[in-house]
## 1
Amino acid sequence: MAQLARQAVTPLAIAVLALLEEQPMHPYEMFQLLIARREDALVKVRPGSLYHTVARLAEQELVQAEGVDRAGNRPERTTYRITERGRAALRTRIAEILRFPAPEYPVFPIGLAESHNLPKADVLALLRERLAHLEGELAEIGMLIGWAGERKVPRRYILVLPYLQAMLGAEVVWVNGFLAELEGGELEWDDFDPDTGDRIAKNPHHHVWASDNHLEPPPTPHLERLTRHRDSAPRRASTVLPAHRENPR
């Protein structure tokens, strides 16, 4: 079941199965609800990919078509419900995600790691722009938390909001500190020719990270233990996710 859950239950599939755990619904209703709940901040939600995900889950017998209805002149819509197999896969996948930190490779760290290839003025301007976006996202999440609190949404349904708030807040603090260090001259940076854009620093690649440096390599993380645990059979997940979730919003 763990291998099946890992292959079949993608992030969007988790969202679909969780909705069907609440009640049967058709894909268009799923799309509307995901957008209304702002879950598009957690997974990429597109109508085409959502319909494809539902079809794939049906092929794997994780969901099952329950009936077809038509409202007025609208096209026919197939309603789906979650199967016991789907419920087990959902719980197994959630348990696995909660238990093991997995490499996700977000793009910002690679951009930051290679930012020394840009002039300092550009890096300062770009990161100030990033800060403005981050602060906007923080304000939006704060509004959502306040909205949920006013409507007494059970906290267990919005745990991800304070988590996102904390992660964004930590990034804002770090980026502000980095900007202050870079702008104040504490951090050494290469110079670039303003006309050609060429790096004009002396011996820019003469350092311990240089590709032609054959000194003892830096220590590498030991991932064997995490890999071994991820591939092992997970514990029973029935205690992780409640069997029913009322519609909180």
Note: Residues 120-150 form the longest helix (31 residues).
## 2
Amino acid sequence: MAALSRYVICEEVARVVRRLGINPQERGDATAVSGSPDIVELDDGSFAIIGTDITDQIGTQPLGDARCAADERIVRISRAALMSAKKDIPDS
């Protein structure tokens, strides 16, 4: 079994436990230069998104009731990444 990835979130170490959807190569979303959009589940039950940071392009308040805190970023993922993850997203 491959080693689990580690991310620091809110000063706690979180581990990636699984990918949602199919891998980027299977979706045709992977590039050797820019990386690959992905959605992963963490061991605390939360999710993380790997995508292109677009915060500077669309601003920190893209909607009247949606905004980024100082420690948040807005990322873009492909439609294919989100659609392939749909089957793996729990209902509750």
Note: The mean pLDDT is 84.
## 3
Amino acid sequence: MRTPTRTTRSTRRTRMTRTSTRIAGVLTGLTLALGGAALTAPAAHADVSACINEVERELQGGEAPASVRASCYLGSASAQDECVSGLTVDHVTKATAEAACKAAAK
């Protein structure tokens, strides 16, 4: 005769941890998939590229860091003030930042 197995506290915790980890993984995957679709929209790409090109002209051939790309993305989403302030933090002159963010908004 087989004795019934007892579920210990550690076994229950392990099961709960696995479930919560799976849920977190699924939510992360959905967020990345939906966010990636927004980032790869053709119109947004062209606008962000124009902004980055403006900044890279000032850098004279240097490649724009990821923070510049993020600021340009904000500019393409009509957040002009955030775009300009983000670019000036990255040591881009205010005139270039304004022109780049204006190019991103087009």
Note: The CA atoms of residues 5 and 11 lie 12 Å apart.
## 4
Amino acid sequence: MSNQNKPADTWEYPRTKEQRDSLYAKHASDETVPMGNLLSDISPKAIFKAIRIMLAKGSIQQKLLPIALDCSAFKEEGFEYSKAQIEQVVKNLEEIPFREKGMKWIIDFNGELRVQFYGERIVNIPYEDMIEKVDISRVGDCFRDVLGINTEVFKRDDQGRPTLQIERIAALAQPNYSAFLGKDELDVYKLEIQEYEEKKVINWMKTVCSPNASTVIDDSYFALSPSDDGKGTKLEFAALQEFPLPRIMVLLGLSNWKWYREWLTRGAYRRFWNDTSGNVLKMYAGESVTTGKPKSLNKTSGYNCSEAR
């Protein structure tokens, strides 16, 4: 089985150009963005797009990338989804205090930048009202600066709710200013399971592969549950994330400044969690949460849109 078609637990980030090119070619379409390089990072086209991301992201076209992954292994009756890695992250973060209001993290600077993050927010919305209007299987739509998500559902429960699905997510570079430093647009497949407990709904998300090598690992879970006083709803997000460092940042040696990297990381996660949790409230209110300019979809274009939303 080729790397791009391996089950989620065996995803390995492509380290050679040949591996990256092969992975990208398998999943490329007219709208996919390949991994850049130092020359393309300073091209007028890249600089202009970075300016749009910073100042006019609403003008950037939304997209729905094709699902070109072999998902047959996930559909098999005996397939088991492992939550062990993200469960360990949650356990690790339970043992440390909040760094800021509703947020805490563990930052590992050994080699690449790997972050364990936990965000929590209590909102004054009754839990039953929240889950009636916020579909936990669509919570990925609320992530900051998502341009579009193509979804295929494999399994549903007896109420018709998704319990196992694949998503291909396209999103702008995070944080936005990193687009000036050689950070690529996000393109990643997530395998997700949804759990519907009596007083909690959870979406577990695991990296399957990243067609343009923009993601090393991005495993997470998002949960909704009643607040302790029973009057509101608790939003929880936990993640283990590692992304390639921006190429120009590495070239300039800025990645060697631990204090600088930590300062940027704290700011990035603060914006991410505030915007993402805010988008959940927008979804509750029936407002759009997708970044960019809407486009009409041509379902005969070869896209796998049977479950896309």
Note: The chain is about 25% helix and 25% strand.
